[in-house]
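User: I'm putting together a small comparison set for a docking exercise, and I want a reference complex before I start. The sequence is below, and the ligand is 5'-deoxyadenosine. Could you produce the 3D structure with the ligand included, as structure tokens?
Assistant: Of course. I'll restate your input first, then give the structure tokens for the complex.
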Amino acid sequence: MDIIQKAFLRRALSVEEIEAVLSTDRYDEALFKAADLTRQRYVKRDVHLKGLLEFSNVCLRTCHYCGLRRENDGLKRYSLSPDEIVGLAKKAATYGYRTIVLQSGENREYSVGDFCKVIENIRALNLSVTLSIGEKSENEYRAYKEAGANRYLLRIETTDKPLYKALHPSMSYERRVKCLKILKKLGYETGSGSLVGLPHQTAASIAEDILFFQENDFDMIGIGPFIPCENTPLSAAQGGSFDMALKVMALVRVLMPTINIPATTAMETLRPNGRILALQNGANVVMPVITEGEYRALYRLYPGKVCVGDTPSHCRGCISGKIRSINRDISVTNGDSERFIIRKEIRRAV
Ligand code: 5AD
């Protein structure tokens, strides 16, 4: 059987088969069709809009690819106060958002107690809360879950262990996997994902990333191209391509039909209308930035980030118009993935 047909019918491929798909453009047309058909059938026309609040760019880590890394002293740092964070969430609710994604560098700027209050206050606005704040202890993850956090995003970035080690000084691959398992155990709707186009990353290692996502049965997967950033050890690297990131994302959709897949900002950075192209090839989520003012530009994971001069309300309107123009709907639900809903149903039934 043809590889794409097999992927579509069995939702399973070997590393070698994924590698084959990634290594030529021969399968592209069939792959993209299969991804869009899978999206249509399993997660329908709804696009979930989630407000991304980049509340602090302070980071204690030194990841080689990331502009927020501690050793980048060319970046002005900020941390919004708990009141400012809740205030921006409140405003986002008035634009129609039903989920706030709280993202920051990995830092110790907020006490666990204070951050729990932030979560409680945002939940009290009838908003779902997704956290994207890195590796924490099990107790800290539990505290945030008990405070009402619904979801957690923690990309594995790459499952290639030597590459992981080279890019993440003083971090551990095993510890990151452990964090993901703890998040799932605690009942978070759990998202992961990876970067595409890292130096020395092979098609085989990307194939392993995809199998890792399937094995761990994540609810959400974010795929983005690596974009070289100034003042980082990888500033002169080549970077990933839009096309390869799109292919990886499409493969993830075909192999994981019911999960949520964001059309990432990094894709839009490499290609005008990149997020719309992503939505037409498997994605069903967009996370417009709801951070305001100069903070939008200061949350500089990589250069060329789009919409840094816009307001949150403008972004909401702009992306909504584009989504409707491709005959898709803006979801009115709180944005849980089909995967998570099914998982809960089964747990209740058996
Ligand atoms: N290019 C693209 N994505 C990046 N990220 C960090 N640095 C870069 C970069 N230079 C991504 C990481 C992280 C997410 C918040 O941003 O995958 O998980």
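The chain has 15 helices and nine strands. The chain has a mean pLDDT of 98.
User: Thanks, that's exactly what I needed.
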